[in-house]
Fold this protein.
Amino acid sequence: MRYLGRLAVATSITLALAGCGKKEEAPAPAASEVAAATEAAAPKALPTPGVYEVSDASGKVVGTTTINADGSYADDSVGSPRVAGIVKMVDGKTCFDPSGKAPEECFTDSAAAADGSFTATDAKGAVMTVRPKAK
């Protein structure tokens, strides 16, 4: 009987100590994983204010876009009247919402190159190159 009593006490102590043991922690994420998660969670910023030259897929300059610090913009396309409105980010895309009845146009932008240029792809798949104009 004493044997069973000691066994019961030993088992109780073992279980109690096991419950107090250090739990295994998940490994910390790598710096690249943290950066990628932060970038994915952060909303994309509006384009930097300035004047941009826009070229079509063949490299022909088709106009300029001026983006102002207040979020307004003006497009001056070759052979077309000036279009103005507001620029905003919608679902990670840069969208130009002209004043009046014209529909909003959204573009998927590539990452900027060292010179600040990037490509902008519209909903139909047309790709344009956008470059900051020298001041």
User: Anything to note?
Assistant: Helices lie at 2-20, 31-41. The chain has two domains: 2-41, 50-132. Residues 12 and 18 are 10 Å apart (CA to CA). Confidence is low (pLDDT under 50) at residues 1-18.
